[in-house]
Amino acid sequence: MLELHIWGPSFTLPSISPQSLSTIAYLRLTQPPTTWTLIPSSNPLLSPSRELPALRDGATWVSGFRGVIEYLYCKNDSGLDDALDGAQRAEAFAFGRYIESEGGRLLDLSMYLTDGNFDVLRGVFAKLLPVPARYYFPGVLRREARRRCDGLIPVTSSASASGAAKPLPQPTAMTATALPGAKEQISAKGAAERIKQVAVATGFLQTIQSLLGEGRFIFGDKPSSLDCLAVGYLSLGLYAELPNGWLREEMVARHGRLCSYVNEVRGRMLGDGVDVTAVMSGQATMTTPSGKLAGGGLPWETVERKDVPWVTGLLLNRAMEIVGITCTERYGDGGDREEKTEQMEGRRIEARRLQRWETARNVAAVVGCVGAFIGYCVWSGSIAMEFGGKGKYEVAGGMGGGEGDDDVENKMGLLEGFGSAESILGLGGRGTFGPRGEDGRDEVIE
Amino acid sequence: MVSLPIPQFLKSLFDSFPLRTYPANPLPSRCPKFGTTPSLYAFATPEDAVAGNPSFNPSCLKWQAYLKFYGVEFKTVPSNNHASPTGALPFIISQQKSMSESMEVEVVPSDKLASWIEEHGCSLDVIDTDSAQVKAFLVLVNNQLRDAWLYALYLEPNNSQDLAGKLYCGSSVSAVSSFLLRQAKAAARQQVLQAYPGGVLDPRRIYADAGAALEAISTMLGKDTWFFGGGDPGLFDASVFAYTHLILNLRWHTGENTLFRAVMEHDNLLGHERRIRDAFFPEANTPDANKPLGSES
Fold it and tell me: Is some CB atom of chain A closer than 8 A to the CB atom of B137?
């Protein structure tokens, strides 16, 4: 049994990510319905490459649209693109990459980087994710989208700025004379942004429309993997109900051929409309009042919501990323189809050695910083002691290590160091600082 | 804001040192003098720049080749990103005599180079770069091939030390160059990670993607002389040449030359590279005479 893990459903589509949609379309066209299940787990940490969609076959994980079709091709020895000749296959590959890159950026722009739309998207993610992750992931996805669209959006656009929109004039400045001017400015900015967005969209949609031509599918009468990709990306643009629907309006208004193409093949590739709440609560086989299946005819499986391990994994992951102990580069373990020459071995060992060195250096840096901080606290604590006139503590603090004979007293000194925040931050002169230090010590010792 | 009156003694002090403006200093003698030939500011070694040899940076080499295709006369000036008004190389500074006989300097950044070159060069029989096919295949070069190039050059441990470090981060102070290399590596990683949102860089996957891209590009070239059946080499030919030439000519480390082997598999791409090199860069190193370290493996 194949398990396809995806980002969860949204806007009546089975997933919110275009890659997941394309993969669903591919599986639906090539695999008999009883041999695979669809799990809206929305957890990218499941697969080793930390990406969704991910296909699990027993103990093997493959991820991404390309990874999945390649794996299925090796497994079944047949694929959707078998009927294509060499040139067509090259073309399918190039246009597939084009859709992934340009179409992906267009969706990023429309979903994550348009004001208003992102707020709706947050709500969508809230239905798919458990509590801490639902606040974390949308931001991460938006950051990624912003990185991908770097240079595509104008600098004045609010989406390209790191924070929110350029602040509006302060209420005090909004006098009767200032108000119309400000309004005009805002609408002019909106119009400029819109022109830019439409220009980006037209470039992409025109190309795909010219590729599609008049045929039922891109390459004649039979669907190919390129059709899966096109439908995955275009359907999200067409069916996502967003408050600022410039992409959808552009598609409907000027690219009718694309809309009719997506409408036509949607049922076959992505199932009929999906009821998000029903699917997420495990009632995908239930029929809706209109007589349709809530799951849209897709083989849904319920998510096992292991929230605690997930959140722990997430936190651990972040912590490791910050310290620098990540497994972001792996040198070919598992499922090796390549030749394993001695050079490769040597290189792997070399790479591991480098990685270990890097980790050791990071850990050393963290330990060093913490050590320096504690050392500073002890040192500043000893100054406080000296001011109080008790030489004993000064000696203990001066030793600096915390491993002297009078361990308890040493800790006292340390406590005091932490106690007087002023001394740590270097605030306050010596004069103001003296009596306070004495008070503090009295409390601690007596 | 209330301004304080100047005390009398300060006033008399200032009065005894009146403000004087000196004439502007002449520019230092080493500062560039713009001739009538346009200068292309690109990553290049000083020797290569004088000889008109290819740059070691793919995007600079692409424009260099494109300028040569159009027969535009230019000279290459070795430079780095800090010199550029947009922060990216290459760019062109050209000087024209305007009506008033005063020299006018025109700076052309890299995103406007294509139209500038087409305007100043001879007319060629090239295919339309706006066609859907060209756009799609350009994505392969600019994403898959570029990611693999960046990975091979900056993120393979030995290559980054010996190639990227020497070519891009050469500074006489070793601490500075190691810091620069670190910065460059982080930037390269950021760039490559855009295509792999999970944050996991698996070299096998990156090289496999680039291999598939090369395969598709090679199929597209087929037995033609230039891509898409053009009568003269165009922008796409320049883009592909920029990568294939550099991949074939850099001295990759043994075991870190997957990209080199991937290009070697496609005879028609090798032929394409050789045609452009012979016609436009006759002085350039040939891959055979300058065999990369890893080619024996």
Answer: yes
